[in-house]
Amino acid sequence: MSSSTALEDEESMEHTLIVVRELSVYKIPPRSTSGGYKRGELLQSDKIWSSRIQVMSCGERCEISLEDPNSGGFVERNEAFDFNVALSDHESALSTLNETSRRLG
User: Per the database record, which ranges form the NECAP PHear domain (predicted)?
Assistant: First the structure.
């Protein structure tokens, strides 16, 4: 096996960096000061979602996966579709930026 093939294999392997079994997402109210927030200050009624989160690396790419703990995915199909479209749009923008940089540089 050549060194370039070994490098390509290493870059194509996904590595799980962390798995958090329960992550809570809260609606953050506006603040009148420049100070930060503490977990104890957030109200349970402001909780908008609970999730499992997994962070993985694959070469230069880092992926963050948010999963519904009950179904393993999004509750609403439309939300899952919209999320995937947003990620795809981001990837397209990065690809365009990289292509432009390659042509100019």
Answer: 14-72
